[in-house]
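Exam revision sheet. Question 4 asks you to relate a sequence to its structure. Input first:
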Amino acid sequence: MFRRNFLKASALFGAGVLASEVTLPAAVAAQGVPVPTPAPLPAGAALPASAAPAGLPEPGQTYGPASARGKVAEVYQRARQVMYPICRVCPQCDGIACAGEFPGMGGLWSGASFQNNFTDLQKVRLKLRPLNSVSSQDRKPDTSTVLFGRKLSLPALAAPIGGTGSNFRNLLPDAEYFDRIIGGCVDAGTIGAIGDGQMDAMDQVRARYDVIKRYGGLAIAGIKPRPQANLMQLVRLAEEAGACVITIDIDSGGRYQGNSRDRAVEPKSVAQLREIVRSTRIPVVVKGIMTPEDALFALEAGAAGICVSNHGGRVLDHTPGTAAVLPEIAERVKGRLVILVDGCVHYGDDVFKYVAQGADAVLVGRHIIRAAFGGGRQGVALFMRTMRDELEATMVVAGVPDVRGIDRRALA
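Answer key, structure tokens:
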């Protein structure tokens, strides 16, 4: 409680930032890196500069994990400069300081669901198995995996997150924001994502899908559970853009009930999900699964996969964390559906834990947002590559030679 109150009080010190935010988008937009894909960041090269608003704490104050060094640390500092007070860039992203700050980066109401994602993942223990022949000077563990027929450099993708207007106060135009996310993920050898927002104008929505198309479809098209006819329009946009996966955020079905018909959301029945799945050749992943029963309903509907998710703790207070429910769900549907999971994925060992519990891959949310605002496309690529390196190091000391070998035997 002391930490949260202290951080909230510090936000008042920088409150003058908000008055000048009208000029911030142009300054931040200058960081964008256009397509085509650039070469990897050379040694010694600087990340894109970000505008630093007035009212920040004194020089020398650092943000993000204390372990961050070099360009990784630079990205955290710049994320703080750009996003404060929307995001404080805490040493650990555990949902305490931002509890109830929704829209924004926090969890809903008490913030318990977001905090449970963090604490339940921390409770997962790993076995240290350093006596092995997994790695040598000539050989390293294989962090790659194949998902929906595509080889990825690691079992981690961007989570579909929208709401750049409501959550991030228009710090970046949507198209540029998603260009950073998708471009950085593609540079790192994995898949990006776009999100959905019911209040967004259709031209804004189309611009997001244009970004997917520019990157050859290497992105998830995240769609809210809109009324069927409206939702199908976005499925057609995803097809035109060549998106490689569609996710349906069924856990958003209770939000924005007062919106007009074309901007509403609704819960989905198995029959409605089946209609969506049969309407397209793009694999459909049902996102927002927190019970074995709902996982089996998604299987019945013909979905290609599920994502175990409580929406970052932003749709229902007091749910368990995803790490607490994933093992039971995996027991029921592993091998029958692709299993994705999200929830406070930050380090390579977080990826390892979730895969060991039964996931095929993870989705990265809040941390990739900070990377995008703090370092642009290059910052996103740096974050994903760093997480791949961390995963490799974890596999070495856990005695696991490849991703296929990560299972519950690695858990203590």
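Marking note for examiners. The chain has 13 helices and ten strands.
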